[in-house]
């Protein structure tokens, strides 16, 4: 029982005899009638996205009338992809009514294609969806699911989401990636502080009235002018009496 390429020998347990992992030979020795000898081999799968077949053949010095002296076991190894996800926001401190842009980046570090890759990003109630744009697949704001699809090894997919903040507070937006062949760092989040919008400024005060216009100087003292006018008036009165 020689292990195929892609399986790395770790250990074994034999009910009798000895097993050589290098040659794959298990020297069982004599087996009496109706007896059973067993060999258990522990191996590590060192490849991905393939099918491994392990074959065992038995021989003996004694005549064996059974022609079926071979057995095999098949192991299907799924694709393996190390996915990482990162999320950023263009502004972490905003006011109610302002928009922010989230950018989510999913990267497949390999070694195989990440099958049926999906990102979940459900927006908090304090965020009103405005728009989105994805380099791969499509985003559904109602469910918060971004269906990326198959992501080849060494490639990335990017999703931009624009939202409006409609409530005051501190909010955390979380994004999680999953795949039928994924592993690694699968969750990311960002935090945003939302402050109230600035209130109206103070009401303007009353407008100032018109400024008085000063009299132009005449060159004569005001007291002398008034006295002269009184003398003229008195003279007129005396003339009437005569």
State the CATH class of the largest domain.
Mainly Beta
Order of strands, main sheet, comes to 8-17-15-10-13-12
How large is the radius of gyration? 47 Å
- Relevant CATH superfamily of the largest domain: ntegrin, alpha v. Chain A, domain 3
End-to-end Cα distance, whole Å, is 162 Å
Number of strands: 17
Low-confidence stretches: 236-242
- Write down the secondary-structure element order: EEEEEEEEEEEEEEEEEH
Summarize the structure.
With 242 residues, the chain is mainly beta. The protein contains one helix and 17 strands. Strand 12 and strand 13 form a beta hairpin.
Folded structure, characterized:
There is one protein chain. The chain has 242 residues and is mainly beta. It has two domains: 71 residues, no CATH class; 115 residues, Immunoglobulin-like. It is 8% helix and 49% strand. A hairpin with a 4-residue loop joins strand 12 and strand 13. The radius of gyration is 47 Å and the shape is rod-shaped. Keywords: Membrane, Transmembrane, Transmembrane helix. This is DUF11 domain-containing protein. It comes from Methanothermobacter thermautotrophicus (Methanobacterium thermoformicicum).
Q: Which key features would you list for this structure?
A:
17 strands; rod-shaped; 1 helix; five-stranded mixed sheet; disordered C terminus; single chain; six-stranded mixed sheet; 242 residues; mainly beta; Immunoglobulin-like
Secondary structure layout plus pairing:
Blueprint: E1 7-14, E2 18-20, E3 25-27, E4 39-45, E5 50-57, E6 70-77, E7 81-89, E8 93-95, E9 99-111, E10 114-120, E11 127-134, E12 138-140, E13 145-151, E14 156-165, E15 169-178, E16 182-183, E17 187-195, H1 222-241
Parallel strand pairs: 7-16, 8-17
Antiparallel strand pairs: 1-4, 2-3, 5-6, 7-9, 9-14, 10-13, 10-15, 11-14, 12-13, 15-17
InterPro entries: Chlamydia_OmcB, DUF11_rpt, Ig-like_fold, OmcB-like_DUF11
Protein name: DUF11 domain-containing protein
Domain DUF11: 1-69, 83-189
């Amino acid at each position: 029982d020689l292990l195929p390429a892609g399986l790395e020998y770790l250990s074994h347990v034999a009910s009798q005899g000895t097993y050589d992992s290098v040659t794959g030979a298990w020297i069982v020795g004599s087996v009496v009638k109706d007896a059973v000898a067993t060999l258990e081999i522990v191996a590590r799968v060192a490849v991905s996205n393939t099918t491994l077949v392990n074959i065992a053949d038995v021989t003996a010095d004694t005549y064996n009338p059974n022609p079926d002296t071979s057995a095999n076991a098949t192991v299907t190894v799924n694709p393996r992809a190390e996915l990482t996800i990162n999320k950023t926001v263009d502004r972490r401190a905003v006011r109610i009514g302002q928009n922010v842009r989230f950018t989510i980046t999913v990267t497949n570090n390999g070694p195989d294609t990440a099958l049926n890759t999906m990102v979940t990003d459900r927006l908090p109630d304090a965020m009103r969806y405005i728009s989105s744009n994805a380099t791969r697949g499509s985003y559904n704001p109602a469910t918060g699911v971004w269906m990326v699809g198959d992501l080849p090894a060494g490639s990335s997919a990017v999703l931009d989401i624009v939202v409006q903040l409609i409530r005051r507070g501190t909010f955390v937006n979380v994004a999680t990636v999953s795949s039928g062949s994924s592993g690694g760092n699968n969750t990311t989040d960002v935090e945003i502080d939302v402050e109230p919008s600035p209130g109206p400024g103070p009401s303007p005060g009353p407008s100032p009235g018109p400024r008085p216009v000063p009299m132009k100087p005449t060159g004569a003292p005001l007291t002398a002018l008034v006295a002269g006018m009184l003398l003229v008036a008195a003279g007129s009165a005396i003339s009437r009496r005569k």
